[in-house]
Amino acid sequence: MIDKSILLKIEEVEKQVSAKLEYMSDFLYKNPELGMEEYIAAKVICDVIKDYGFTVTKPYCGFDTGFLAEFDNGDGPKIALIAEYDALPGFGPDNGPGHACGHNWITAASMGAAILLSLLKNEFKGKVQLIGTPGMENYGSKVDFINQHVFDDVDIVIQPHLEKYTSVSCQSFALDAIEFSFKGRATHAAVYPEEGINALDAVQFTFAGINALKNYFKAGVNIHGIISDGGEAPSIVPEHAACKFYLRAKDRKYLDTIKPRIIQCAEGAALMTGSEMSYQYFENSLDNIINNKVLQELAKSYFKIEDIVPSDEYDLASTFPSTDIGNVSHICPTLYMEFDLAPDGEFRIHDNTAMKYVNSKYSNRRLHQVVRIICGLAIEVFNNPKLLEEIKISHRKTMSQ
Where a domain ends, among 259, 281, 303? Predict the structure, then answer.
């Protein structure tokens, strides 16, 4: 634990910027943008953080709404904080976008911690990064960032998130997003049906095969599909048809094991109908999150300072979402923390109830607590080489299992 005098400084400085952080959360909430279209959000975030001595690179890694903001405070570790600022479709006014996942809050928290560290530069040496990662909900840009080696020299990554519980033992499923496309032969469905090859039949057989196959997977596998192309008109035997699936499993290794069997269902459907099958990944593949035990225990020590207690009901959950921060956790030690908001337990992400809480007195209270938590543990890592080495050893050990 860092010295009590530094904790008092963190609290004092955080009060000085608290109004600005609440403003950022409120502004993003009121100006929601879908993934890959976060032009307003990216500009405002970069404009604000430049005022605190950060060097900003934008666009970044080929993304117009991606950015890297770095505060260079001399030789030392490099700690990256993650900002996500895309909204979800359908949760805003007139069925428009809305921040039902609380990315307005996430950005304010990560940016706030980065700003706080810059104002406390006399307390550590090292580099602070705020990395803006667009399209988390509909693309997964962190995967591209990884492929462009953004995280190769980062010592630790920190990201807070919102949930119905509070935990540092977060889980996320590995995910592959696959679209199967079938090509048949069109003909008049009533006059010359015998001359057609129905691509939609192949889609239906694919669903039937996958639904039967689900019974033979380990617990924790989730497969969800939709028909993305079902033909043009009932009077025409569909020449083209397609279906999209999310394939999820608790870890990447098992997902890679069962995926060929799922693809075989589509191959079999093509054989049964005489159609041609092809497939593609329509989103980046996501990996399960790798938790770091040393970082988890470190975070818990700072939770206690803020009187935050991890939720017991987290252990009762059986299914979890997928996120591209999971991929990052395979590259470098990652602390992914989830925080509840509603005292009545009503809060749910990706749900209309979220809109009541992600820009409220509850979210603002959590915002200030989480900013102080991140800042405190980051300073401890900056100033404790032995602790950082323990974190890295823990990561290497977990990855080797």
Answer: 281
The CA dihedral of 213, 216, 222, 223, to the nearest 10 degrees, is -10
Q: Are residue 276 and residue 323 in the same domain, yes or no?
A: no
141 CB contacts (<8 Å, ≥6 apart)?
61, 63, 66, 133, 134, 135, 284, 324
Is there a single domain that holds both residue 28 and residue 164?
yes
Are 188 and 156 part of one and the same domain?
no
Q: How far apart are CA 61 and CA 372, in angstroms?
A: 30
Domain containing residue 248 = 178-281
Tokens of 386: 């032995």
| Overall pTM > 0.90 | yes
Q: What is the pLDDT along the chain (401 residues), one digit of tens a residue?
A: 899 999 999 999 999 999 999 999 999 999 999 999 999 999 999 999 999 999 999 999 999 999 999 999 999 999 999 999 999 999 999 999 999 999 999 999 999 999 999 999 999 999 999 999 999 998 999 999 999 999 999 999 999 999 988 999 988 999 999 999 999 999 999 999 999 999 999 999 999 999 999 999 999 899 999 999 999 999 999 999 999 999 999 999 999 999 999 999 999 999 999 999 999 999 999 999 999 999 999 999 999 999 999 886 555 444 568 999 999 999 999 999 999 987 777 888 999 999 999 999 999 999 999 999 999 999 999 999 999 999 999 999 999 98
Which of 217, 248, 281 terminates a domain? The answer is 281
User: CA-to-CA distance for 113 and 298, rounded, in angstroms?
Assistant: 16
Q: Do 195 and 146 lie in a common domain?
A: no
Which residue bears the tokens 């000085």? 16
